[in-house]
């Protein structure tokens, strides 16, 4: 098992490579901790709520300059950021593994998302297209223009400590906005590394220094950011509970928000499914990242004809999963983020049992003797008699509830019968079944897949979900529009006033 001293040394080296001044992080406000051993790495300084107003004011001043910087020039900053992330890919992945407990391949995958979204945003910097529409009036032109919006407050979660920041920041900077970032308290080191790389990109390209700032701090920092009248857009990733607090507060001051909240993602496995493919996809989506993705598969809705076989194969696969030190190359499932997550997982399993469920495999703590302060757990597969109580809630841990069905309509009803609506999948070889799932009265999520798991979306698509997931969209496609304001322009090049709708006046 990697020791805390190893991790501390690894973190120091990676931070230094990324340009973080180690002396500057010394302080007594926050604890940087690793879930790998469950122990403290460093005590560090940070910001308090009183620092927020100054940061937002500086970001707003930078915005006044940045908004008139040509978009392709703004893109050059993001291009440089992407190059630096590529150069320090291993260091960033190391920090993600240390702070979020991800296995190397997943940590590298997260960093790859950053590079991908930077490339996407660079292309976007020449494609912030507005439409032109035919005017109903002679001698008139009707068109729309997209302008930068203002300061964007980014609030991110521990589980994708760098990728979600990059989705927002690469797009926001390209759109001419400036960013104030409040990362999770659980992952301050990765945030410092990202901010240092972006500072270097800013210096290299001559962009205004305050186009990006990071505020390490507690919930009070996030609250002040949310309430700040100069923050035009709050993009917040976290629990539905957090979103319920953030959304109305931003709306009350007529700010905008992008909410990326809880998921309770399900896959339907039909009788025609390729079970080899389904098993592999399900195990990654349900057990990968120790169940700590917002896209993690939490419910499996299986046709009764294939349920026994699929459950037997999944049970065997779950028993074989290597749970442990994410720095061991053979490990597939790293630790839960902290003790509170373990407690919530146990409570969920206890409730599932009370509600008539049967734990088929997993749920037990592992490595408690060698790593008493860390929370390693075998992913759990739980057969449930109905979609009640706990199955309708998101527990941020590797628990997959299995339900069965006989008709596809029933499966879709079960699928949609939860408050959340992020990601979904169907495993089938029948095109009719697939199309039914993709149709308007099919799956009600923001992400709907066929023969692919619920997690691991590419950055090129819009990411986000419906219902209690919050409705926001980030990263690819036309998500950029949420980071800009639209002006509709009417240009009269005739010599008279012509009123729309044929209105006669004067
Ligand atoms: C998250 O868990 O907040 O689709 C983001 C995925 C990743 C992003 C997850 N690309 O699983």
Write up what this structure looks like.
The structure is a single chain. This protein is of the alpha/beta class and 506 residues long. It has 2 domains: 4-260 and 470-487, Aldehyde Dehydrogenase, Chain A, domain 1; 265-460, Aldehyde Dehydrogenase, Chain A, domain 2. It has 14 helices and 23 strands. The protein has helices at residues 4-18, 52-66, 71-87, 89-100, 104-124, 163-174, 188-205, 219-227, 240-252, 275-287, 304-320, 339-354, 408-416, 431-438, and strands spanning 26-34, 39-44, 132-133, 140-148, 151-155, 178-182, 212-214, 231-237, 256-260, 265-269, 297-303, 358-361, 365-366, 376-377, 380-383, 399-405, 420-421, 423-427, 447-450, 462-463, 466-467, 474-475, 484-492. The strands form 7 sheets. A 7-stranded mixed β-sheet has the order 12-15-16-11-10-18-19, sandwiched between helices. Strand 18, helix 14 and strand 19 form a beta-alpha-beta unit. It starts with a helix and ends in a 14-residue tail after the last strand. 53% of the residues are buried. The chain binds 2-aminohexanedioic acid (UN1). The site of 2-aminohexanedioic acid has 11 residues, from loops.
Beta-strand content bin: 15-25%
Provide mean pLDDT, rounded: 97
Q: Characterize the quaternary organization of these chains.
A: single chain
User: Which structural class do you get from the secondary structure elements?
Assistant: alpha/beta
- Rg measurement, Å: 24 Å
- Kindly report how far apart the N and C termini lie: 85 Å
Bound molecules: 2-aminohexanedioic acid
**How would you characterize the largest beta sheet?**
7 strands, mixed
**Largest sheet, order of strands side by side?**
12-15-16-11-10-18-19
CATH class of the largest domain: Alpha Beta
Total domains: 2
| CATH T-level fold name of the largest domain | Aldehyde Dehydrogenase, Chain A, domain 1
Number of beta-strand segments: 23
CATH-derived architecture of the largest domain: 3-Layer(aba) Sandwich
Shape: globular
Helix content: 25-40%
What is the overall number of helices?
A: 14
Given as residue ranges, the uncertain stretches (5+ residues, pLDDT < 50) are none
The CATH superfamily title of the largest domain: Aldehyde Dehydrogenase, Chain A, domain 1
């Amino acid at each position: 098992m990697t020791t805390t001293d190893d991790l501390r040394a690894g973190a120091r080296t990676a931070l230094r490579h990324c340009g973080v001044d180690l002396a500057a992080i010394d302080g007594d406000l926050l604890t940087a901790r690793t879930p790998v051993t469950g122990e403290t790495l460093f005590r560090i300084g940070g910001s308090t709520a009183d620092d927020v107003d100054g940061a937002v004011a500086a970001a707003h001043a930078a915005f006044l300059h940045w908004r008139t910087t040509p978009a392709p020039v703004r893109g050059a900053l993001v291009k440089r950021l992407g190059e630096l992330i590529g150069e320090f890919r291993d260091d960033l992945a190391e920090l993600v593994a240390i702070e979020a407990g991800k296995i190397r391949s997943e940590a590298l995958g997260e960093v790859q998302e950053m590079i991908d979204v930077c490339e996407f945003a660079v292309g976007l910097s020449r494609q912030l297209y507005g439409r032109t529409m035919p005017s109903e009036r002679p001698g008139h032109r009707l068109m729309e223009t997209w302008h930068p919006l203002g300061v964007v407050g980014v609030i991110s979660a521990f589980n994708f400590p760098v990728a979600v920041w990059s989705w927002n920041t690469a797009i926001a900077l390209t759109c001419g906005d400036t960013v104030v970032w409040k990362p999770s308290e659980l992952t301050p080191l990765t945030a410092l590394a990202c901010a240092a790389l972006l500072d270097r990109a800013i210096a290299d390209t001559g962009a205004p220094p305050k186009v990006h700032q990071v505020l390490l701090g507690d919930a009070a920092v996030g609250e002040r950011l949310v309430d700040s009248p100069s923050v035009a857009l709050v993009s917040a990733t976290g629990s539905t509970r957090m979103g319920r607090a953030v959304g109305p507060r931003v709306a009350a001051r007529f700010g905008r928000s992008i909410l990326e909240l809880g998921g309770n993602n399900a896959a339907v496995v039909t009788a025609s499914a390729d079970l080899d493919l389904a098993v592999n996809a399900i195990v990654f989506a349900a057990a990968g990242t120790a169940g700590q993705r917002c896209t993690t598969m939490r419910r499996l809705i299986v046709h009764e004809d294939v349920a026994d076989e699929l459950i037997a194969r999944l049970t065997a696969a779950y028993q074989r999963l290597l749970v442990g030190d994410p720095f061991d190359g053979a490990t597939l499932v790293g630790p839960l983020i902290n003790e509170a997550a373990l407690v919530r997982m146990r409570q969920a399993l206890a409730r599932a049992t009370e509600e008539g469920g049967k734990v088929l495999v997993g749920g037990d703590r592992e490595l408690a003797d060698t790593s008493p302060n860390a929370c390693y757990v075998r992913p759990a597969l739980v057969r449930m008699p109905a979609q009640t109580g706990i199955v309708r809630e998101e527990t941020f841990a590797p628990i997959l509830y299995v339900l069965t069905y006989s008709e596809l309509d029933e499966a879709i009803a079960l699928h949609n019968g939860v408050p959340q609506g992020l990601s979904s999948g169907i495993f089938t070889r029948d095109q009719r079944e697939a199309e039914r799932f993709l149709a308007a009265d099919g799956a009600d999520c923001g992400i709907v897949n066929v023969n692919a798991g619920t997690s691991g979306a590419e950055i090129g698509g819009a990411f986000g979900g419906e219902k209690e997931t919050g409705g926001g969209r980030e990263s690819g496609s036309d998500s950029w529009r949420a980071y800009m304001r639209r002006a509709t322009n009417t240009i009269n090049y005739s010599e008279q006033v012509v009123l729309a709708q044929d209105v006669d006046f004067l």
